[in-house]
Amino acid sequence: MFSTISGEISALIGMAPNFGRGADAFASISEIMNATDVEQSLGNHQPVEIAGDVEFKDVCYRYPNGKADVVSDFSLKAERGECVAFVGASGSGKSTIMNLITGLLTPTSGKILIDGKPLEEYDLQSYRHNISVVPQNSILFTGTIRENITYGLERYGEEDLQRVVEMANINEFLKDLPNGLDTDVGEHGDKLSGGQKQRITIARALIRNPKILILDEAT
Fold this sequence. Notes:
The chain is α+β, with helices and mostly antiparallel strands. The protein has helices at about 1-35, 95-100, 125-130, 145-150, 160-165, 170-175, 195-205; strands spanning about 55-60, 70-80, 110-115, 115-120, 130-135, 210-215. Among the domains are: about 55-130, P-loop containing nucleotide triphosphate hydrolases (Rossmann fold, 3-Layer(aba) Sandwich); about 145-215, Rossmann fold. The longest helix is centred in the N-terminal third of the chain and has 33 residues, at about 1-35.
């Protein structure tokens, strides 16, 4: 009897770390369930499509508890079809400007205009349907090249797919793959090189025909 009880106690002690992890997970879930929205989209302008004109007017941004502005009195006008490059050292505000354009951050002062209308007047979900972002670190999902490019699209044309494959220079390595666009990329794209993965993420952005395309150090 004693050996049975001691064995059960030992088993419970062995499970203690799992109980701890379970409690931590439950606490994390509770925080998410009880948290307020990360952002509030106060605008109600819901454009089906924007032209793509972007203007910064004396924009400043300072992170919460920051001692200085990361972006200070920044003004810029980029018209539709125009290509603008931001060059600077790490921490100079390039990513902050990207997050301001996408509406992930709100200027501390100044205005951001999209097609001449203040960004805060837009419904952010509708506005972001017109934007594609290629992140610095390419993110691929388990599946084929085709599935990764068209991920999230309800429908697409084969001509559109071939167009973005050519624009992103995927054809350069596609001809060497056994199944072409239907080649499996592996888990997180581990069967491909970094450059190949980046071209696929660029094609994924292009096939959505964005009016504003943002490349975060996509060389």
